[in-house]
């Protein structure tokens, strides 16, 4: 029973598996059906599977047959309709063929008519072209007839004009006709004779302008000077921030008439022209000094004769030669301003003539040619000025030369020549001017600093007080309340230096006038020059005073006080520059004065010099120290040299009352540290081989004297025992040896709260070895029974033990 059920179950599973394989065969691509068939052959029921497969195939065949039966009638109907359409298509084809044949027959007449129209249009165009050609030839014949008549009557200039029209306008239009070639052959016969006559006139013209260039330039520069004076009168005062004048805004010097120009706003150019206003005295122009008619005639003739380029090249070549002669400066030009003036007059005259030719002729010289000459002139002129101006060492001479160059540049700028490079070169001369000023002020500052007494300025009356306050910006309410006589905290060099800085600023401002710079550029120039004065000249002068060998502490203290007040005055110098340039310090890119840095550096140098001098004085006192390191006596007072040293320090720090608190405190702390370091070196120096405890006691008294000085507060501002910390290393070392507290030191070594934290084992070992040597020598000098003294043997043994442990600590410390 159970076997039957199991067989039935297996049969059902096999049937389900076969059904799944059949569905997979139906739905799977043929290329991937291999694994599926393999699963059938791997099983044991492939016979039954084949039966099922045959059954499934028969079912599909029946379904296909049913489907074909269902659609067969529609297929038959479609074939029938298609046969009907074929007949209709044939009928349509026949109709289209018949229509095309009729259209071809009817269009033959239209094609013939179109051909006739084409021929008519071609004839009409030919007739029109013939008329046009005849119209072109008739003016040529008329012009040639006119030319023949003018040549017969020897009217050469009208003939040349006619020839120009004929050759360049009419003949090119009909040049392919034979009669035109006859005309062309007859035209060139007159050219050579006319060229020779006109060239002679040109040479005379070039000689004329060469002779008159100097006079023309002088006249032009006078006119420019008059115009500038007129501008100053109209404006009532010069405006530093004016921009450079353009040609259309200035008077045209060498035109036939002096034309008034449209005024520009003050903001644009700094010039306010008055319309219809002319000078009372008329200045002659270039046409009044030179007759330009020969060059005009020569240019006209060469242009008509088609030799304009030859004429232009010859003219330009000759003028280039003249330009090179003009631009060659005399060797002694730098000796006087007249030499520079004559040089500039020749250059201006040359370019005024060229500008006149440029604007009165069409193409004899062009802008490119003028620009090329001007570039050459600029380079040579600037090179000559650089060379010759370098010989000027007097600021006043440099200033006069600058004014002459400005007039030279303004004159040429009226004619449209770019003069930016000249003004750039003036900026280079400005640097030279600044250098000459700096050299001059070097001597001024040196004299001021050398003659100063480095003592506060005493005043005995209100008039003297106001005089000092008027020279230097100083306000102190407490000082004002004090009765006379009283003293300013600074010495005389403070107001003198302050006023000389202002004088330097004025000197810089003079050079910036008429340079057509904006207020911002002038402000920047003045500030940079002033910064050079402060950072280089004044700073070096102060440093030289501070580094003098014979400078005293009192002078150094006064220098610190003086530089402090000068540092405070820098804001007033800023305001002074702002007032004369009208540029607010908040403006973007405004250069700041480096006065604060300069005076701070000088003050720091003076402070360092004070620290150095104090240390040197301490070293001088320490050289008087004469310790008896082998004494056995216990002293009861400090050494004399140290008492004197402490007294000197007290008196010195009393002078520091006017110094800033931090400076005095730093000086005091530096002195105490140096003193402590020097005492430590004195105690540990290698020359001292042996040391007694009695000498150590005396040394301890000296250190106590130093600590007492530190506790007394020689300079206010220290917190509690801060100053005493300078001697903490000495104090712990001496306490260790005097109290002989080795057990505590060795037990607590390395701990943060160690009693002898500042005692280095190497230092302790060095000092202990000195004491040990002294004890050993003392034992050898005693009697033969010294070795039986148990206390001394125990103490020596203890020293050896401690020394051994100290060596171990030293080794571990290094590792």
Automatic annotation (TrEMBL):
GO annotation, biological process: vesicle tethering involved in exocytosis
Regions that span the bilayer: none
Question: What Gene3D superfamilies is this protein classified in?
Answer: Exocyst complex subunit Sec15 C-terminal domain, N-terminal subdomain
Q: Which UniProt keywords apply?
A: Coiled coil, Exocytosis, Transport
Q: Does the keyword Coiled coil apply?
A: yes
Which residue ranges does the record annotate as region Disordered? Answer: 260-280
Presence of the UniProt keyword Transport in the record = yes
Q: Identify this protein by name.
A: Exocyst complex component
Please provide, in alphabetical order, the Gene Ontology terms of the cellular component aspect for this entry: exocyst
Q: What does this protein do?
A: Component of the exocyst complex involved in the docking of exocytic vesicles with fusion sites on the plasma membrane.
Q: Which Pfam families match?
A: EXOC6_Sec15_N (PF20651), Sec15_C (PF04091)
Which family, according to the similarity comment?
Belongs to the SEC15 family.
- Parts forming coiled coils: 82-109
Domain (Exocyst complex component EXOC6/Sec15 N-terminal) spans 52-221
Specify the Exocyst complex subunit EXOC6/Sec15 C-terminal domain's residue ranges. 421-770
